[in-house]
């Protein structure tokens, strides 16, 4: 039977699979969500973990040339990070956004990106090839996943379930990285150390598995469909009503206004400094580690991959325990433990470089064990806590802007990478690092001393900054659940005047804003 019902295209896709909750969010579904985390290994093991060593040892690039392409790529990534979260939040405006989802669209976009990564570890080409290809890769490697990080807050409003999803995600990623890193280590150890083609072969294999896991995540998760009412509220806030053809300048102003509002949230601001500082510490360590192992300790490059494999394997058990503990105790206690152990590891690396004791591999494993316990926690905690923080913004504004939260966090991360890449590669260039096209070469004493100082003192400084902000972090499960309940009450028509004193106190403590000054629900 024909009807006269008019389809405006808005609700046409609301019953698609990506918007439909499909049962309990248990271990299996959380695993499906977490498989996307293999993106870090699929691209990072070769195109990040070994890339500086690859470029200077097989492509003839100097450290400053490497720094130039790394920094330019990070600057692109910073701009992309600012854009991608806001764009993700705004995709409901467009038909393709409603059809493929605000978050799932970017999960699908990962597939061509993984194919593109195969063009990175190719030796024998000129600087401009490496500059263009790697800059584009960096622009998306650390940003294309940002909408995915908001999936837990889209699928559930319960802190405990989100934490479970974050824990399983981290464990799955660690398990996959353990297996991948071990295989990479075995292959590199068996392959001639002066043959660069193996890096390309390994990247092809990693990308194929990355594509498979991306598709699994796409089909096992869902997200929230933005209704017309919700869209109207968000459009009104931009002073644009139903007009979605506003000028780019107006959109840019609206974006930066959102970032300014979000940055004012006390707890999220502290989270940015924690995440930014530990990312800088981890990036500097990752940048220097292979150089340190090969040029200072005189070991095979495959040792880096073995250490990565061991780290993530042990980290699986650490994160399982951490996921349980974080629901029982405030994250600040775990931050203190994580960064404290990481600082012990920094001290150990320094001793190794200066003393050069016998049985180097054994002592390196001892130092790495401390780094494992600290590093797996500091890599796990911010990402697990983050999905619960956008509710603070919802309390203040009544809006759902998790993508903008991801963008601002991504901007801080990319800015940190720019700084540490400039520091690391720039200093190596200044002290006389020797490049090659046929493998690692003997480095002068000044370079060895510099590498030792950077992996110990340099990395340690960033961990100290992260530790200070971590142990003064106030959010925990009870407080965030209380905020979530208050948001639910307000959404159901509750009056602000009926808020409890506990809610008012927690609001001020976590956001820095007095409850009575909230205007988003007026």
What does the largest sheet look like? Answer: none
* Rounded average pLDDT: 79
Enumerate how many helices there are, as a single number: 22
Q: Gyration radius, to the nearest Å?
A: 24 Å
**Whole-Å distance between the termini?**
45 Å
Class of secondary structure makeup:
mainly alpha
Task: Compute the number of strand runs.
Answer: 0
Instruction: Tell the overall outline.
Output: globular
List the secondary-structure elements in sequence, H or E.
HHHHHHHHHHHHHHHHHHHHHH
Low-confidence stretches: 1-7, 239-246
Which percent range fits the helix content?
over 70%
Please provide a written account of the structure.
There is one protein chain. With 522 residues, the chain is mainly α. The relative contact order is 0.14. Helix content is 72%, strand content 0%. Mean pLDDT is 79; it is low at 1-7 and 239-246. α4 (63-90) packs antiparallel against α19 (402-430), α16 runs antiparallel to α20 (445-471) and α18 (390-397) packs parallel to α21. It has helices spanning 27-34, 39-47, 51-58, 63-90, 95-100, 104-116, 127-141, 146-149, 151-155, 159-190, 197-220, 228-237, 248-263, 266-296, 302-328, 331-355, 360-385, 390-397, 402-430, 445-471, 477-491, 501-511.
Keywords, separated by commas or semicolons:
522 residues; mainly alpha; disordered N terminus
Blueprint (SSEs and pairs):
Blueprint: H1 27-34, H2 39-47, H3 51-58, H4 63-90, H5 95-100, H6 104-116, H7 127-141, H8 146-149, H9 151-155, H10 159-190, H11 197-220, H12 228-237, H13 248-263, H14 266-296, H15 302-328, H16 331-355, H17 360-385, H18 390-397, H19 402-430, H20 445-471, H21 477-491, H22 501-511
């Amino acid at each position: 039977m024909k009807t006269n019902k008019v389809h405006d295209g808005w609700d046409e896709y609301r019953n698609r699979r990506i918007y439909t909750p499909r049962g309990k969010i248990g271990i299996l579904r959380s695993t499906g969500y977490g498989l996307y985390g293999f993106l870090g290994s699929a691209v990072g093991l070769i195109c990040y973990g070994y890339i500086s060593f690859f470029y200077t040892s097989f492509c003839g690039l100097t450290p400053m040339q490497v720094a130039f392409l790394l920094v330019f790529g990070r600057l692109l990534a910073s701009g992309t990070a600012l854009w991608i979260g806001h764009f993700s939040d705004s995709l409901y405006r467009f038909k393709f956004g409603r059809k493929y989802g605000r978050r799932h669209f970017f999960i699908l976009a990962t597939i061509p990106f993984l194919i593109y990564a195969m063009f990175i570890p190719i030796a024998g080409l000129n600087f401009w090839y490496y500059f263009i290809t790697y800059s584009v890769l960096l622009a998306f490697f650390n940003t294309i996943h940002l909408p995915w990080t908001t999936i837990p807050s889209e699928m559930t409003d319960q802190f405990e379930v989100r934490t479970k999803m974050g824990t399983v995600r981290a464990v799955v990623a660690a398990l996959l990285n353990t297996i991948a890193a071990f295989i990479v280590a075995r292959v590199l150890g068996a392959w001639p150390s002066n043959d660069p083609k193996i890096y390309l072969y390994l990247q092809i294999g990693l990308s194929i598995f990355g594509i498979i896991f991306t598709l699994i995540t796409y089909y096992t998760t869902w997200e929230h469909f933005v209704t017309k009412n919700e869209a109207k509220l968000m459009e009104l806030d931009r002073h644009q009503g139903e007009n979605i053809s506003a000028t780019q300048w107006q959109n840019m102003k609206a974006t930066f206004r959102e970032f300014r509002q979000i940055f004012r949230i006390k707890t999220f601001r502290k989270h940015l400094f924690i995440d930014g500082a530990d990312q800088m510490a981890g990036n500097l360590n990752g940048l220097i580690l292979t150089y340190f192992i090969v040029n200072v300790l005189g070991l095979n490059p495959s040792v880096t991959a073995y250490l990565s494999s061991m780290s993530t394997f042990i980290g699986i058990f650490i994160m399982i325990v951490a996921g349980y503990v974080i629901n029982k105790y405030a994250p600040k206690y775990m931050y203190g433990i994580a960064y404290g152990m990481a600082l012990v590891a920094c001290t150990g690396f320094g001793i190794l470089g200066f003393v050069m004791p016998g049985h180097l591999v054994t002592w390196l494993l001892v130092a790495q064990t401390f780094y494992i316990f600290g590093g797996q926690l500091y890599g796990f905690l911010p990402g697990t806590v983050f999905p619960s923080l956008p509710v603070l913004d919802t309390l203040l504004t009544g809006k759902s802007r998790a993508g903008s939260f991801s963008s601002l966090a991504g901007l801080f991360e990319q800015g940190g990478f720019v700084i540490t890449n400039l520091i690391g590669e720039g200093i190596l260039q200044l002290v006389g690092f020797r490049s090659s096209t046929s493998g690692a070469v003997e480095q002068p004493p000044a370079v060895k001393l510099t590498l030792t100082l950077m992996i110990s003192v340099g990395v340690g400084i960033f961990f100290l900054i992260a530790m200070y902000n971590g142990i003064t972090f106030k959010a925990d499960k009870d407080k965030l659940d209380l905020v979530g309940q208050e948001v639910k009450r307000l959404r159901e028509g509750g009056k602000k005047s009926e808020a409890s004193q506990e809610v008012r106190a927690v609001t001020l403590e976590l956001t820095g804003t007095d409850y009575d000054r909230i205007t988003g629900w007026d």
